[in-house]
Amino acid sequence: MIQGNNRGKIKQPPAKEVIKYIINPSISDAEAERSFQNYVECNKAHVLMLEKQGIIKKEVAKKILEVAEEMTAMGSKPSFALRPELEEMYFNLENYLISKVGIEVGGQQHTARSRNDLYATVVRMDVRKFYLEVCELYNEMRKTIQQVARNNTDAVMAGYTHLQPSEPITFAQYCAAILYGMDRDYQRIQNAWEQLNLCPLGGGSMGSTTWKIDRQFTSELLGFNAPLGNSIDAVGSRDYILEILSAFGIAASTFTRLCQDLYVWATPDYGYVEVADEVAVCSSIMPQKKNPWTLEHIKGKSANIEGLCVGAWAVMKNTPYTHNNESSGEGPTFLWNAFDEMKACIELLNITFRGIKLNKELMVETASNNFCTMAELANTLVRADHISFRTAHDIVAHVVDFMLTHGKKASEIDVDVIAPIAKQLFNIETKVTNEEIQLGLDPVKNANSKDSLGGSAPEEVLRQLDELMARLEENISVVTQRRAQLEGAKQKTEVKIQALLA
To answer: pLDDT tens across 366-422, in order?
Structure first.
């Protein structure tokens, strides 16, 4: 039977449509897996605080906490049925408590508290779990890309702008570029913790309470950095959801750009990279196909993340700045979906990079003949003839036009091509030699000689990767510290409970 009346003056039970679309999702298996133990943890911290402050008696707190410990032992889901007539998760837990100790004892658990501040706290605790999982997966993925980069500092290829051959780079330098972007993306995700890990408990329905509670105490027991400083803000703010979703959306944009490059380079027309069989799929009709399956899905899922971010903004805009079910109830649903999509993107990208193969010979051959070394050829003329770069640029542009017009490759450029053009355009008697020209045209020497900050020379790329690894190790350390903070708070709570029960 229902222990106590949780519907107040409302006489009729919820409509079947309300049960179907609002109540049942809030007590589903997925919701129980996510929230059950966090409700229990909140109850423990709150009851310990009430007893410490003399608001409830020690004997009452002991009886309540004994049932809370029993619930903890149940694991991720309660062993008792979650009943829709009780409306939601908390009332089901409270009903179970009251069935064990009676309403005069169990009914004291909710003193100096509302569902509003309780739910706001539980959601933040739920988010912390998924947030830290994403952080760990993200860092593991970055490690994988790091290793691929370190293994391929010798993989010289043409870089591209506007999808046209630009200048020689290495695949390792490209990976380092992605890792710098991911480093910034991760900093945005990491920084969101500071706004997430604030405790609403004690805010009440929105107007605080006349009971002399200790919000700092409950905040510490639940592993939060601090209580939120205003009771209305405590129950009304969900900006951390928008911050995390925005950070995810920006990170997803980096995913899509990386996957688009790999997607193009995996085509037979380029042939620079090949994904492993485990992440590819064949056609049902065309047996020659090896479609880079994961790359397409990562791009699609990244779009979903960005859409979820926009959806959350739309739900939360123009809502009253207090507790309401638009921002507090519907708002977090976007984040649960985004966590799933983000984890999928990260894990799929990780496994894709682990098995990626490079066709280094084809990369170099293509770079030797697609005119990506022309900027260095212009630099060669500047050095040989002591002319301005703009003059050299004009000469080389006409050289390229001549070679393309006559169906010749970049590697076939020599003094006999350059000299008449330099003479015709600027009356320059070039002093450049064929040996100097071939050095300028060599994509490997070109890429390996760029040792200025950020360049493609192997030793410079390794410096970049070392810098990025140091930052990554710092990020991993922060996640470890945050997990330790939550675990330490949980242990502290259990010590206090056992001391009280003893």
So the answer is: 999 999 999 999 999 999 999 999 999 999 999 999 999 999 999 999 999 999 999
State the CATH number of the domain containing residue 186.
1.20.200.10
Query: Parallel, antiparallel, or unpaired for β 226-227 and 156-161?
Result: unpaired
pTM: 0.94
> Taking a C-beta distance cutoff of 8 angstroms, is the pair 111, 50 a contact?
yes
Tens digit of pLDDT for each residue in 47-66? 999 999 999 999 999 999 99
| Domain extent for 382 | 371-444
Judge whether 250 lies within some domain. Answer: yes
Contact at 8 Å (CB) between 218 and 201? Answer: yes
From the list 297, 294, 301, the residue with the least C-alpha distance to 352 is 294
Amino acid at 106: G
Enumerate residues 6+ apart whose C-beta is below 8 A from 271.
Answer: 265, 359, 362
The CATH number of residue 416's host domain is 1.10.40
Residues 194 and 241 in one domain: yes
**What is the C-alpha separation between 68 and 47, in angstroms, rounded?**
10
Q: Count Cβ atoms below 10 Å from residue 198 Cβ, excluding itself.
A: 20
